[in-house]
Specification:
The complex is a heterotrimer of chains A (about 280), B (about 350) and C (about 270). With about 280 residues, chain A is mostly helical. Chain A has 13 helices and 4 strands. Chain A has a domain of about 190 residues: MetI-like fold (Orthogonal Bundle), CATH 1.10.3720.10. Chains A and C meet through helix 1, helix 3, helix 4, helix 5 and helix 6 of A and helix 1, helix 3, helix 4, helix 5 and helix 6 of C.
Chain lengths: ~280, ~350, ~270
């Protein structure tokens, strides 16, 4: 009885606000767009009995037009490059934190996390100020006799913003794993005659691979659906899936197509999400 | 009447049988040690008595009253945990007062009882500290008085000394027993350390695979082990197995054993022989209760040597050699002998 | 080598933020030109009526959503950590972690569709339905926050030594007393951390809020987003400087509190 009182409120809440909305997405993806508010015709009707009025038009559009296929490919590529860059930057940072004196570790970790509290949007604002025409970066380049260059609304700006936003996500799991590692394994390898670099390559690196995979996915999964950063920093042609969905919904008011895009994103992201959760259970 | 009586107690965890029809009694004011390896069921017995687990079969009686159905908080039984389980967010004073506050005792009386309890273990000055500011030994004493401050008739102790340094363990154990004598409560202490059990307990109950192997005073268990398991677990005795011949002498490999009370011809037997009862002899070994062998290995133990002697059939005997005499070289031929009363016939 | 990597990474993280804070105090509108020290952007921020209203709305939504999320997430975390295997456990676990991994646009769109359908149903039934706005944003943010709180609380409960609660029971405490005097004080820091996490997530969210909001609800991030889209930044700089100062103040206070507790003053 008491168990039911504890279980019921969150379960009911989650069924209503997580499970039901996802089912509705699946349903509306098969609805026909139409004028009116809301701008679609429900796929199920009632005329003396249940009637199917749905259509696979949106799904067909999605699969038929290369514009959408390209958006998905570009999103996956962008997310992959972002996650790889984050991992490349985060690994030496995590090593540095794990190798620092114990009293320095928490302050260093806080220094990595504190930018979060500056706010996600203000941090993007900082990049806009840095990169825009007449901004800081062009000023410095100008002193060196270069430029002015068009830096904002470029792929460079897009990746700078993405890596800046997601880097802490990659540092945290790596630093935790490296802090928890059993140092005697490395000492044993050194004792057996391995040079510091060989110790790193043959012991430290392989043992941190699960954490590195977690860090990669922790960046990849949200980056694949990112909307705000490409919108504010990226070039107009960087039509990633998040942006395309936003456009279909807010500009074209094609809700069924937006729902179909969301459905496709779910299907595409399910394998990395499941992989991530398996890694999390093992760690 | 027994303070605690356990009758036919059984407990199964999935496929594993932790307790298998256990019978046990504790007299008022007695210090009982539950001794056994890991998985012998000794901790399960404690948790069943405290009420954290429910038995599958059997009864637990405290001063004649069946405890079945009573939740842990309603049982007049104290427990001291192996991890101490001190509340990290409460001070030493509040930890000790916790149980008294649950009885809605007046604040003044709580204060007095807690101060008395802390004084008993010399920790009055630590009342304001948090557990993480104490040493391991101080934590152990706080956990002890916290479980005693409600003056339970029965205290259960789960490996109370295991987390202490070796140097502190012996002294703390003796203090524990002195305290028990003073307050007169019944103690049931779970331990895997035979020396601890031998030194502190009035009686020892040896558990093997959820059953009682033997229960009795330490000297009795040590000198007259009932089973192979008890003989090997307490003091690592040699166990010799063989058949009694027509002349009433038992033959175990190369050893001829004349048992103190004789034996029926044809009987198959196992006997225990303590390493410290075996002597080195000059010349040839006697025809019975003696054997010749080769010294294989020697380990220094401070109070003497433990010698491993290989017998002609390849089996080995553990022999304790006293200190103060130069031991023989490994590889030398030895003659061994022992008195008949050193041989203890085992039941199983 | 490691230190160089760490310094480079931290430099990359902090350089744009520090420059932004610096130029929040510059009188000039052009970022690279130092126009002399000035607080004019802070004054402009304080005078901006829409910004103030949006900030107030955001704070109210964040506080409400975080509180709801802590209550519900605490219960979910408790069920996941303490109920053992039960029917529906996999479902609860999957639903509670879904908001952590779903793309924001998917969460936003799916919740909006739910709210639209619910509005339609209520209108068909009563002839009138409440509009979307602060309330729908609060529901959405509470759902996302719930997921984070559940993870934090579940992890804390799983790490708790079970003999602490057994010891309390042995000393005569009934189940609710055990919860009140032992369990709750020990998980309180995780509940506080979960609340804070849900609060900051709500204050930071623009995507989900944009989907589920109606004409009545414009939050601070939504306002900042539209400002950044046209590239207007000095006031945003001032806002970020303000956020950062508050965050640093909070982290400093928390650090001081933890240090004092560790040194055992109380």
């Amino acid at each position: 009885m008491r168990r039911l009182l504890i279980l019921l409120p969150p379960l009911a809440w989650l069924l209503l606000l997580v499970a039901a909305p996802l089912l509705i997405i699946g349903l509306i993806a098969f609805a026909e767009a139409g004028p009116g508010v809301p701008p679609f015709i429900p796929p199920f009707g009632w005329a003396g009995g249940p009637v199917w009025r749905g259509s696979t038009e949106s799904i067909g559009t999605l699969l038929g037009e290369t514009y959408y296929l390209e958006a998905f490919l570009r999103s996956l590529l962008t997310a992959f490059v972002t996650a790889a860059l984050c991992l490349l930057l985060a690994y030496p940072m995590a090593l540095g934190i794990a190798g620092a004196r114990p009293s320095w570790r928490l302050p260093l970790l806080l220094l990595v996390l504190l930018p979060f509290w500056a706010g996600f949007l203000p941090r993007l604002g900082a990049w806009i100020g840095l990169l825009r025409d007449g901004g800081w970066a062009n000023g410095v380049l100008g002193l060196a006799g270069i430029g002015p260059l068009r830096l904002l609304y470029s792929n460079l700006a897009l990746y700078l913003g993405m890596v800046h936003a997601y880097l802490p996500f990659a540092v945290l799991p790596l630093a935790t794993a490296l802090l928890r590692r059993d140092r005697s394994l490395e000492e044993a390898a050194a004792d057996l005659g391995a040079t510091p670099f060989t110790v790193f390559r043959s012991v430290t690196l392989p043992l941190s691979l699960p954490a590195a995979a977690s860090a990669f996915l922790l960046v990849f999964i949200p980056a694949a659906g990112e909307f705000v950063i490409p919108e504010l920093l990226g070039p107009p042609e960087a039509q990633l899936v998040g942006r395309v969905l936003w456009g279909e919904f807010f500009q074209n008011r094609d809700w069924p197509l937006a729902a179909a895009l969301a459905l496709a994103m779910l299907v595409l992201l399910l394998p990395p999400i499941l992989l991530f959760q398996r890694l999390g259970r093992r760690g | 009447m027994a303070l605690l009586a356990v009758e036919g107690l059984s407990k199964r965890f999935g496929a594993a049988l932790a307790l298998d029809g256990l019978d046990l009694e504790l007299r008022p004011g007695e210090f009982l040690a539950l001794l056994g390896g890991s998985g012998s069921g000794k901790s399960t017995l404690l948790r069943l008595v405290a009420g954290f687990e429910t038995p599958d079969a059997g009864r637990i009686l405290l001063e004649g009253r069946d405890l079945a159905g009573l939740p842990p908080h309603a049982r007049p039984v104290g427990m001291m945990f192996q991890s101490y389980a001190l509340f990290p967010h409460l001070s030493v004073f509040d930890n000790v007062a916790y149980g008294l506050r649950r009885e809605r005792m007046a604040a003044a009386e709580i204060g007095q009882r807690v101060r008395e309890a802390l004084a008993m273990v010399g920790l009055e000055a630590m009342a304001g500290r948090k557990p993480h500011q104490l040493s391991g030994g101080q934590r152990q004493r706080v956990a002890l008085v916290r479980s005693l401050v409600k003056r339970p008739r029965l205290l259960l102790l789960d490996e109370p000394l295991a987390a202490l340094d070796a140097g502190l363990r012996e002294r703390t154990g003796l203090e524990l027993r002195a305290l028990q004598r003073r307050i007169g409560a019944g103690f049931v202490m779970v331990t895997h350390d035979q020396a601890e059990a031998l030194a502190l307990a009035d009686r020892i109950a040896v558990l093997e695979a959820g059953r009682l192997a033997q229960c009795g005073p330490p000297a009795e268990l040590y000198e007259r082990p009932a089973t192979r398991f008890v003989a090997r677990f307490l003091g690592a005795a040699n166990v010799l197995e063989g058949k009694v011949g027509a002349d009433g002498v038992m033959v175990a490999g190369p050893c001829r054993l004349a048992l103190p009370h004789g034996a029926a011809p044809g009987e198959t037997l196992a006997v225990a022989l303590r390493p410290e009862r075996i002597r080195l002899l000059e010349g040839a070994p006697p025809g019975a209760n003696g054997v010749a062998g080769v010294l294989r290995d020697l380990a220094y133990r401070g109070d003497g040597w433990m010698a491993l002697v290989a017998l002609p059939d390849g089996t080995e005997l553990r022999v304790a050699l006293p200190a103060g005499v130069a031991p023989p070289e490994p590889g030398s031929h030895l003659a061994l002998g022992w008195p008949a009363e050193a041989l203890v016939a085992l039941r199983a | 080598m490691r230190r160089i990597g760490l310094a480079l990474g931290l430099g990359f993280l902090w350089a744009p933020i520090l420059l932004m804070v610096l130029y929040a105090f510059s009188a000039d509108r052009i970022p690279f030109q130092w126009g002399g020290f000035s607080l004019r952007w802070f004054a402009a921020l304080a005078a901006n009526e829409r910004m103030r209203e949006a900030a107030l709305l955001s704070l109210r939504i964040a506080a409400g959503a975080a509180t709801l999320a802590t209550l519900l997430g605490g219960l979910a975390g408790w069920a996941l950590a303490r109920f053992g295997p039960f029917r529906g456990r996999t479902l609860l676990g999957a639903l509670a972690s879904a908001p952590l991994v779903l793309p924001e646009v998917v969460t936003g769109l799916s919740l909006l569709l739910l709210f639209v359908l619910a509005q339609g149903a209520v209108e068909a039934w009563l002839g009138w339905a409440p509009g979307r706005g602060a309330a729908t944003i609060l529901l959405a943010h509470a759902t996302i926050g719930l997921a984070y709180v559940a993870v934090v609380v579940q992890a804390r409960l799983a790490a708790l030594d079970p003999s602490l609660e057994e010891a309390a029971a042995d000393l005569g405490a009934e189940p609710f007393t055990i919860f009140r005097t032992v369990t709750l004080p020990l998980i309180a820091p995780s509940l506080a951390a979960g609340w804070l996490l849900a609060f900051t997530l709500s204050l930071d969210d623009v995507v989900v809020a944009s989907f589920v909001s109606g004409p009545a609800g414009t939050t601070l991030p939504m306002l900042v987003f539209s400002a950044l889209k046209v590239g207007l930044t000095p006031e945003v700089n001032a806002l970020a400087a303000l956020f950062l100062a508050l965050a640093a103040l909070f982290v400093g206070a928390a650090g001081l509190f933890l240090a004092r507790r560790a040194n055992g003053a109380g």
